[in-house]
Amino acid sequence: MNFDYTEEQNAIRDSLSKWAAQQYDFDKRRAALASEDAWKQNWATFAELGLLAAPLPEEFGGLGGGAIDVSVVAEEFGKALIVEPYIPTVVLGAGALKYAGSAAQKDEHLNAIAGGERIIAFAQAEPKSRWALNDVSTTAKKDGAGYVLNGQKAVVLGAPQADHLLVSARTAGGQRDAKGISLFLVAKNAKGVSTRDYPTIDGTRASEVYFENVSVGADALVGGADGALPLIERIVDEANAAYCSEAVGCMRMMTDLTREYAKTRKQFGRAIAEFQVLQHRMVDMFMASEESYSMALRATIKLGESEQERAKAVSAAKVSIGKLSRFVGQAAVQIHGGMGVTDEMRVGHYFKRVTMIDATFGNVDYHLRRYIALGGEARAA
Amino acid sequence: MDLNFSPEEIAFRDEVRAFIEQNYPKHLKGKVLREDLSKEDFLAWHKILGKKGWSAPAWPKEYGGTGWTATQRYIWLEENARAETIPPLPFGVSMVGPVIYTFGTPEQKQRFLPGILSGEVWWCQGYSEPGAGSDLASLKTRAVREGDHYIVNGQKTWTTLGQHADWGFFLCRTDPNAKQQEGISFLLIDMKSPGVTVRPIKLLDGGYEVNDVFLDNVKVPVDQRIYEENKGWTCAKFLLAHERAGIAGVARSKRNVERLKAIAKAETGDDGKPLIEDDLFQRKLGELEIDLASLEMTELRVLAREQAGKGPGPESSLLKVKGTEIQQRLTELTLEAVGNYAQPFPRGLGSNEFAVGPDYAGAAAPVYFNWRKASIYGGSNEIQRNIIAKMVLGL
Question: What superfamily in CATH does domain B7-88 come from?
Answer without folding.
Answer: Acyl-CoA dehydrogenase/oxidase, N-terminal domain (1.10.540.10)
